[in-house]
Here is the input.
Amino acid sequence: MSELAARLQGELNAARKAQDKERVLLLGTVLSDVKNREIEVKRVLVDDDVVEVLRKAIKRRRESVEMYEQAGRGELAANERREAEALSLWLPAAPSDDVVRAAVREAVAGGAKNVGAVMGKVMPRFKGRLDGSVINRIAREELGPQS
Here is the structure.
């Protein structure tokens, strides 16, 4: 078990002792996703894999927030938003926009002339620490109107 997954399991145990039903449900769901991912890839996950599972869980909740708000279900949207925020606390610190911008400029100077080429060079450096949409936005800003 990865260190991050072990910490999540410890937090789940603490939530059970504290009888915090919402937190138990949230952490239990995420740990279930982690176990399912282990079965899918047929190996023990490392921290980067667990971070990927967390990012997917956060993304699902943010998509649910949008759908609930469109349907006029504010209380459900607020619950999903709280869960997404709680899960984001487990993610590693994201690099600043300045660091990403420097990497994008380096990729452009290295010959990347479109967004796809820039993403291909920059994404591996920030895998598991940053959402691709941030890199995409910065790449489009740096490439200007030709992108």
Remarks:
- Residues 47-70 form the longest helix (24 residues).
